[in-house]
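Q: I'm writing up a methods section and want to include an example of the input and output format. Could you take the sequence below and give the corresponding predicted structure tokens, formatted cleanly so I can copy it straight into the document?
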Amino acid sequence: MDNQYAGNLEYAVDIVMCIDATGSMGSTLQQVKENALSFHKRLNEEMAQKGKVISHLRIKVIAFRDFGDRADDAIQQTDFLLLPGQQTEFETFVKGLRATGGGDAPESGLEALALALQSPWEKGLDRQRHVVVVFTDAPAHPLGDPRQTSASTYPASVPRSIDDLYEQWGHSASQSALMDNSAKRLLVFAPETPPWTNIGDDWNQSIFFPSRAGEGLEEYEMTEIINSIANSIG
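A: Here is the clean output for your methods example:
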């Protein structure tokens, strides 16, 4: 992307979208997909209004279901895709997502979040912003649950407790942080239920957006994410 604003610092933005793709998401997944596909254009417009331009924008998508129900497709993910150059690959993956499976009420959302934190984040350019976004209409299985970890496809890198995951997210006393504290942001669009409410309350640099009962995530627009990114870059 050309830096059209002379003298501006160069901004690198990495976004990982963790999307619940279980059957209960239904029409909500369609809205999330539509918002995701328009994300690049809308973020550039918002940044331009602030007199800034993103020099390096990458998006990664992690679709999750339930390891205890469908181990084979409990996680579907892309690598980081550089936009706009890999827009076609990004669109193909997002359009191909289908709401299916899920089993019991909780899903494997924490596993998706763990994989997101472990992403190969961009460290170059003058300023970085590393953003993880979680979209779900369900609670999450606790990490370390044998019904999940016994799946043949379960990722070995996923921590076995929420406390260990918090260590990887990083806090003032953490020695295991995977992300730079000044660069990271976490946005969670989820029902008001643990573990999502706990994460919103306790994790630094995180924002929790509760979904209304029975409405999934349809009431939220990608505007919240775009504003959070654009306003945090300075």
